[in-house]
Design brief:
2 copies of one chain form a homodimer.
Chain A (H helix, E strand, L loop, with lengths): L4 H7 L7 H7 L11 H22 L5 H11 L2 H10 L10 H5 L6 H31 L1 H5 L3 H5 L2 H11 L6 E8 L6 E7 L7 E5 L2 H19 L2
Antiparallel strand pairs in A: 1-2, 2-3
Helix pairs in contact in A: 2-7, 3-4, 3-7, 5-7, 10-11
């Protein structure tokens, strides 16, 4: 039995002018041609924008690397599926028989896509301001609990603590080159860690800045590898 | 000599309430701490959203795969750098001495980032509607000339033509499994092509749809590999 989408709509605090859009957002491609894939495409980009501008405002001193990591920690399949589960979204999904039997309504990817599709549907129905408000509402708890501790620490400190937590040797920074006139020099520093054979080169107007940049790149590299 | 950013601002058809934001958007990280990285983070997400919603409206029948490929063809480093060059943006960049000497003002990545940062700055200065309007304006030509031919073709046709253009054997589709009741069967088809040893599995409510889905995934795979 497919539950009435109106019930979910109310649970989510939404009221659609065109309820059909909401129903489509809950329709997986396994259930037919008029499914949520296009709305998900749209919702995904809206979510990226809404969270980016929120983080930009919330953390005026965070660099681009920190903002990107914060966003990745908020917007990912697992986190979106978790939000979808909080509202029992899976109970209202429209799936083909195959997906239904294999438990598609509990799968992270399907839940996450449907939640993004709801965002896309809301945008089409009510525009960006309403959509932004709702996204910020359902992400409110996650946004509040973002532990700034970890993000406010500079990259070198973060990288060092990561190595310490794994009982590994500390990162190594080697100055590669210095160039430019005395008052506008450019430093190039190579960072290596025991966790990977890859190295990262940081460039900056001081040795310290070049080291921070190398550490930041290494954190991103390790972050990607662990995904 | 750094040229007056006001001149570029006018060329771009913009007028900032806070011109300082525009100057920051033109400042590469090599030129100091108050640079365009945060604005680029923001602009990148805005651009993704604006183009997504535009494509969603322009191509009401295009599937998510087509929309994603269309967006990737519009929004990429090379295309953004091209737009930046059209407006001589490189002449107005603020770079550190090292980047200046090594021709940073002509580099795709630096030009593309600065253009995204201008979008971020415009959003902060004037909000999403103004920013959307300007992005659609500078992308107008690209949006108009989007060759629909290629995108309207179904994935199987596109994949076949790709193989023919490289004088390779045609794609191979093998039915793997069929499951479900007679009126709601699920088909699983494996697609292989001579270009890669990887295979793609498509699932659909008919054999044809499963093949199209497998072909679409293969196109995406080949697209990723070629980047």
């Amino acid at each position: 039995m497919i539950r009435n989408p109106e019930v979910l709509c109310k649970k989510l605090g939404l009221a659609f002018n065109n309820p059909e859009l909401f129903t489509i957002a809950l329709t997986h491609r396994s259930a037919g041609a008029n499914n949520n894939e296009r709305l998900e495409f749209l919702g995904d980009s809206i979510l990226g924008f809404v969270i980016a501008q929120k983080l930009y405002k919330l953390f005026p001193k965070a660099g681009e690397g920190v903002l990107s990591r914060l966003r990745a920690s908020l917007v990912n399949e697992e986190s979106l599926a978790g939000l979808a589960r909080q509202h029992q979204l899976g109970d209202y999904l429209r799936l083909g028989l195959g997906e239904l039997k294999s438990g598609g309504c509990r799968r992270d990817s399907i839940l996450s896509d449907a939640l993004e599709a709801v965002m896309g549907a809301l945008f089409i129905d009510q525009g960006i301001a309403a959509c932004q408000q709702w996204i910020e509402h359902i992400f409110a708890e996650k946004l509040q609990s973002l532990s700034l501790d970890n993000w406010q620490k500079d990259p070198k400190t973060q990288l060092q603590e990561l190595m310490q937590s794994k009982k590994l040797d500390l990162p190594d920074y080697v100055l590669q080159t210095m160039s430019g006139l005395a008052h506008e020099q450019t430093f190039k520093v190579k960072c290596t860690v025991p966790l990977t054979s890859e190295t990262c080169i940081g460039v900056g107007v001081s040795r310290k800045k070049a080291e921070q940049s190398a550490a930041e790149q290494m954190l991103e590299l390790l972050n990607k590898d662990s995904k």
